[in-house]
Amino acid sequence: MTVSSVAPGADGVGADAVEAEPVPPPGPGPATAAGRRAPRLPWPGYLGTKLVGAVVSFFVVLVIGFVLFNLMPADPVRTMTRGRPVSPEQMAQLRVQLGLNRPVWARFLSYLNDTVHGNLGYSWQYQQSVGSLVMSRLGPTLLLMGTSFLISVVLGLWLGMRSGWRAGSLFDRLTSGTALALWSVPTFWLGMILLIVFSVGIGPVSGILPAGGMSDPTLSQTGMVHYLDVARHLILPAVTLVLVAYAQYVTIMRSSIIEQLGSPYLLTARAKGLSDAAVRRKHAAPNALLPSMTMIFMQLGLLVSGAVTVETVYSWPGLGYLTYEALKIPDLPLLQGTFIVFSASVIIMNLLADLLYRVLDPRVRAT
Amino acid sequence: MIGIETGAGPGAGGTEAQAGTTLLDVRDLRVTYRQGSREVPAVRGVSFSLGRGDTLGVAGESGSGKSTMALSLLRLAGAGAEVSGEVRYDGEDLLTARWVKLRAVRWAGASVVFQGAMSALNPVRNVLDQIVEPIVLHQQAGPREAERRAARLLESVGIPARRTRAYPHEFSGGQRQRVMIAMALACDPDLVIADEPTTALDVMVQAQILGLLAELVRESRVAVIMISHDLAVLSHACDRLAVMYAGRFVETGPSRQVIEDPRHPYTRALAQAFPTIGDPASRLAPSGLAGDPPRPSQIGEGCSFAPRCAVVMDSCRGRDPELWQVDPERTAACLRVLSEEGAA
Amino acid sequence: MTALDAPAAAGAAVRPPRFESARRFARAFLRRRSGIAGLAVLAAFTVLALVAPLFIGPDQLDVTRVNGPLLASPSAHYPLGTDQAGRSVLLMLIYGSRESLRVGVIATLLTLVIGSGIGIVAGHYGGLVGRLLMHLTDWFIALPGMPLAISLAAVLGQGETSITIAIAVTSWTGTARLIRAQTLAVEARPFVERARALGAGHGQIMQRQVLPNVMPLILVSSTLTIAGAMLSEATLTFLGLGDPTSVTWGEMLNQAFFNGAFTADAWWYILPPGLAILLVVLGFTLVGRAVETVLDPRMQERP
Predict the structure, then answer these.
(1) What pTM, to 2 d.p., does this model score?
(2) Chain A contact for B200, CB < 8 A?
């Protein structure tokens, strides 16, 4: 037999030999986790690509906005003056005022120039600049959406992790079933139901929470009293948004965890003597969380949609409610302003998610 | 003939021959997977025992149940697996032990070197962290001391100190396997189960890893169960060999004897198939052997190797052979062995 | 006529395995209880929507012609009470399923046409055109759908046509991505290579080879698309973008909310339309998920 061609314990264990080791040929299996991802770019290149992407996205938003609000309406002046007695001369004058008689490309350029400089036009309904209107409504929306986003992400990820870990269990079926049902509920209707139950009250039991708005005008508008009052007004809209949005995160995290379930590194963690909970928390969760991050931020659009209807139902003085007020008229410059601001914020959040992912995941982090 | 048959109960492996006290005693280990309503036997009655410092190699084709057998020793075979029999580690039956006790034995008592260390290491935690984890968990040291020990271990397997904070994907396949070995030794275990430790590596690296493993084992007197489909690899690294087929040991004995004078026709085919260590052909099915190993769900009556056996007899199909003592140190599960012995 | 014969004969040749796979699919689907439940709900609503005109006429739905009590609570004559104009909420609910389902279905069809059109073209032309279309899809995915849909519907004017268009324009992206991936997979198969070698043009390949092979996937994705479309329809209508004279579930909720059902504590007016939307959307979602699970072997054995 020729078995002893290499003696056991042969030399070549030294550090030098290690450095010289050839990387094994790429094969199916082990290496795919990292190999699947995009080729690693150095930080400046990555940042540049993502920034350019975001700028291009924003440009597309502007184009869409221009087409929607400046080209598509057959005659903005007619829409604007609907229901008011206006003479043809006045309308012609308005057209010149709005620059409607200029060529399309010139209008687009001045539109671009205006928008980039924060000049979003003039609201027909409020007789006020759209920019300042939007800015004044940004705070309440950020408060509502930020709160709901945080709660629904934490709740959704936690539930998704637990139910994915025990896929098929009673807990999993209950969680997934509830999430599915809540996803199928129209947001505004859920808001109405909560409003009836907790604000209007059922029968003789009167409600305990305010029906709408962001604060009680009879109370002081500053200090602790004000904060508590706002918090009380925040409860119902935030709960509605959370109930509708958290299901997405359950689904994302659940499937992400299930993808990790068979992973050999989890077996290693178990073999080390870690408890089941520790294996899940310390090993499965970080691995499942990273790929879901981008998805989590991608779902922000849903939260924006929810915000429009929830703010309408609860008359929450934010951008969503402003959108509703604008579309009633319809106040096109205002609608355009909210559209651009909503889109821009979602683009910015997606950009942040991409950058955060890069910082957190060692597999794509540049060394 | 009948006398010999009755004498061949579980445990006839005779592996207790080594010096030293018994560390691990496995009796009639059976692992059955449930697939829907069907039961699929993966391990069908394996018995052996291992003293401190003993090294046992388990050889077999993929699907022979060798990995399942090794993992179920620490109840790591997965939730769908039903494990029966006895696995006495230091006198305690791990199959019935409480979780707390079992978890205490895991890694601190018996650790595992997994195959394909890319996926066996957590991709998002640096390697030092992953070695520190079991040391701290089993309360063998505080975080600081554990880090020092982990760095020492990494250095002893040839990973320089400056790379201890690197992530698994930043290492080559061989280096990852070295990390895995360092990790296995983190808690000074009495037993290391090496599950195909060199499978995904190329030839040169395979030899290095095996050498490293053998060296560390010699130094620390740790007992080893090494799983591989490569008889040559095993015969270098282990004192004793067990050949597994369709969920059972079909031959056991001292490595050199098993390799040079195989008694079971399956061992013979395996030995012919792997002339040298790390031969590329080792990735393929044994060349001298036609057909595939039986699926665990399709094991019928008689000797499970009979359909592929070159020297099959009529009686093989009717009778399921058990391990018979061939000589004081060796056993084989083949009717031919039995008839030879009977004739002698 | 003769031109049609050849493909027809080819179709006949491959028919048996197709039927077999259809049967296997049906059997696997029938084993999923949630899918069956969803299908039952959908069947019930469809039947209701189809037969509604047989027993509900304009007399009972026209605000100017009804003479029931205003916002009356449920009674023997009005099982679900009445609305602010004196119409029976139950009848409106039943009749509303027609419009709601119709807008959902049409918007979905439009979505699928846009989505699979862009998906197939993007997948077929790998070069600049494909990349541009894919980037376009990615940009659209990043946009918040609701503000865009609202703006579009507002610009187009009230009514279900604008709503349908708005939904289609904002929800084709998912289909496009899915179909593009599938197109790439189909085009890699040998029979497309063969057709190309035989001189088939781009249009022919996309129409004759790719489309029939991505069709099943398009149909599967339609069940999930329709769930989203119906939710969007309800939302847009609720916000006042629908035709105020039509009877749909979203319109009912709009009128309930803005016409004082709250102060009257008229839960019978608010609860049913929302539940109906919930049931239908859930039905489509359950069916869609069941189909998805059956078709995706990776998902099998998972609840």
Answers:
(1) 0.79
(2) yes
